[in-house]
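Hey L., structure's done. Input below.
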Amino acid sequence: MYSGALFGVISRIILQPEVAEDILQETFIKIWKSADNYDSTKGRLFTWMMNIARNLAIDKLRSKDFKNANKNQDIENNVDFIDAQKEVTFNADAIGLKDMVTSLKPEFNLVLDMVYFKGYTHVEAAEELDLPLGTVKTRIRMAIMELRKNFN
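Output:
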């Protein structure tokens, strides 16, 4: 039931489909092993699962072995990789999420995209946008608060 949405989030961060599938499997294993840690008073099950998937994908993206493996690919793998990127599994329009995010102020939209979909840390986003770290964190918090209004 959740695999499509979780895979969509993972594949936006990890662009190689095989690695994204491995991360999805690791996500479900971690969900299974840490199910006792879920607290319904802190948020929805789907949000908790999505955070686990996103965090595992970002951890993989930042890992040293992943960075080194991406440096040494032959041309045929890259051609297949580019072709595979034309197929998108995640469809945020199904729940209108894309419209909700694009309806936010542009500065909120930009920061959310960098941090949640491109895997930037808050510090990296602040450096990239040439903004103070506190401003980036405030914009993320404000954007999430605006999005929550649409779901509650």
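The chain has two domains: 1-90, 93-152. The CA atoms of residues 115 and 121 lie 6 Å apart.

-- N.
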